[in-house]
Amino acid sequence: MPMQTPLIVITRPLPQGDRFAEMVADAFGSSVDILVAPVMRIDPIPVNVDPTCDVIFSSANGVTALGQSGDGRVAFCVGNRTARAAQKAGFETRIAGGSAEHLIKLVLKSDATSPLVHVRGEHSRGDIATTLRAHGRTVDEVIAYQQSEIALSGDALSQICAAERVIFPIFSPRTAAILSKQLETREINCAVVALSDEIAAEVHFAKEIDVAPSISAQSVIISLERHIAA
Q: Which residues 6+ apart lie within 8 Å of 167 measured at CB?
């Protein structure tokens, strides 16, 4: 009997989940089945950031939730996708290597003198503002969005449990923690491709965990290819 095609379960919030699903479909076509099943929803919170302050974005969600024109101000961005969103909003961007640690180092190496505001979600890792303040930088922080948990639907759980092999690409520690809570009692033949070691540490429902070689969606696609070909 031929093996079933692997099921790629994409749990990113929308619209990021749909965009990544398109990347997976373009890369693998009919060799995989794709299920888009977000376990988080991004809910913006109205905030007011002083227009004279430069900003720190640790996620593209922060740019969207802020909804403020950059007017040429500097935005320190965790990675390329966040920087693209900030550029579209009119910020002059500085781009870090994809993690909170890289973002902190980028700010500390800069010669910026303006006050900074870290625009972040309710759940955030890395203690960015606290660490920067400890190094003498003037940094405030505002919570611009909530990451509300969504339970996997009965239909999604049925597809996941029935699949011969499931692969979860995971892009945030909170997503990993939510999935672990929802799936740890399920019997699933699954593997995880985590965007970072920090994310992999939060996975408690899969024995096979792979960490992408770099912090980018394309790197996750490369890691998925290894699992699909296995």
A: 6, 7, 8, 9, 190, 191, 192, 193, 224, 227, 228
How far is the C-alpha of 218 from the C-alpha of 230, rounded, in Å? 19
**d(Cα 114, Cα 137) in Å, to the nearest integer?**
9
How far is the CA of 170 from the CAs of 51, 144, 193, 211, in angstroms? 34, 22, 6, 10
Residue 159 near residue 46 (C-beta atoms within 8 A): no
Its pTM stands at 0.88
**Within 13 A of 91's CA, how many CA atoms are on the CB side?**
28
| DSSP state, residue 136 | T
Q: What is the pLDDT of residues 4-21, one digit of tens each?
A: 799 999 999 999 999 999
- Residue 148 CA: distances (Å) to CA of 13, 39, 127, 170, 193: 10, 8, 21, 16, 23
The predicted-structure confidence for 138-173, as pLDDT tens digits, reads as follows 999 999 999 999 999 999 999 999 999 999 999 999
Give 213's contacts (C-beta < 8 A, 6+ positions apart): 219, 222, 223
DSSP string, 98-133: SSHHHHHHHHHHS---S-EEEEEESS--S-HHHHHH
Please state, in angstroms and rounded to a whole number, the distance separating the CA atoms of residues 90 and 74. 9
